[in-house]
Amino acid sequence: MGRSRVRLLWTALAGALAAVLLISGCGSQSSGGGGTGGGAQAQAPAAKVHLEPGGGGDVNPAAPVKVSVERGKLDDVALTNGDGKEVEGELAADGLSWTAGEQLGYGKTYTWSGEATGTDGQSVPVQGSFTTVSPAKTVRATVNPTDHTEVGVAMPISVKFDQPVTDKAAAERALQVRPSVPVEGAWAWLSDKQVDWRPKEYWPAGTQVEVDANLYGVHYGEGEYGRSDLTTKFSVGRSQIVKADASTHQMIVEQDGKQIASYPASYGKDHDPELNTPNGTYMVMQKNPVEIMDNPRYGYTDVEKKWAVRMSNHGEFIHENEENRANLGKVNTSHGCINLSEADAKAYFDGALIGDPIEVTGAVTTMEPRFDVFDWMIDWEQWQQKSAL
């Protein structure tokens, strides 16, 4: 009898426990995903969208602008500015990314919109906004040589800014030179507003050159940013070098390593350092069929000279001077220019290219490297030291 009662008691307890478990199980099922009990939560969407830029302010407008998705595909994407205009962009064929096709503006707010579908079939929104930086000032730049020009073998590449650049390294990093053949060269800051690139030696004849100045969005310091990108493509012509030895009273022209002309010339006065044609490597800067020359200090104004080739902003030219014909090839009597006969001056003028080098030797003075264009009056080691990088 005692054992039967114990067995009955355990049977009752087991039944009660089963009832409790059954009630507990029914309660969990009825609460579903929306209950506060311990049931499973709704599964998160599989797709994950990445925005570049993702949000915030002071975004650089030149930064990458892109949307990508993991575990899914983009259905549509739009990036809209504050005026409601959509930024041009392209959705990749595989639906995994969208990339902007135009630059963003300074000081604007942009809003992302669109949708992606995950591998689980669930939709995920493309959403967010950001604001681009507002510069204290945008700085304009120019590049020379300009597109589709043919230049001489001494021609430097010059980038000039309309404001002084504080962060020169940032600006220089944005500049790229791509010659068609290997050419060693370097950038050098000649002032706070000008940086030039020149080869170590003269350009090889026939070189094709492309320059990219990706300056838009570059922070030059003190809240100033680049206004726009610049590009140029130019070609280097034949190699023509003027060998101007003042002591010989001749001006020799060499083309592709061979002498093609020797003109009787008169250089600046030997005995007066103020009137010398100073030693130095110049280049053809400008060509004018007629140049008006003034130097009141030496008693002349509004004097017309033909076939004038400017070689320095200090005031030196190669030009015709028929009034000095008796001294050509014999005596140096000019005020610093290289005088030729009219026929010889025209012959040289017609064959000269902007950027041709003019190497002056034999004078009693040497030109200081401070009058444009003085790139070749600085030796290569000094030139490299002028880089900001």
From TrEMBL:
Coiled-coil annotated spans: none
Key words of the record: Acyltransferase, Cell shape, Cell wall biogenesis/degradation, Lipoprotein, Peptidoglycan synthesis, Transferase
GO molecular function: acyltransferase activity; peptidoglycan L,D-transpeptidase activity
Cross-referenced Pfam families: Big_10, YkuD
PROSITE patterns for this protein: LD_TPASE (PS52029), PROKAR_LIPOPROTEIN (PS51257)
Domain L,D-TPase catalytic stretches: 240-361
Signal peptide segment: none
A cellular component term, taken from the record's GO annotations: extracellular region
Active site, renumbered: H319, C337
GO terms for biological process, alphabetical: cell wall organization; peptidoglycan-protein cross-linking; regulation of cell shape
Pathway entry: Cell wall biogenesis; peptidoglycan biosynthesis
UniProt-recorded name of the protein: Lipoprotein-anchoring transpeptidase ErfK/SrfK
Native species: Saccharopolyspora gloriosae
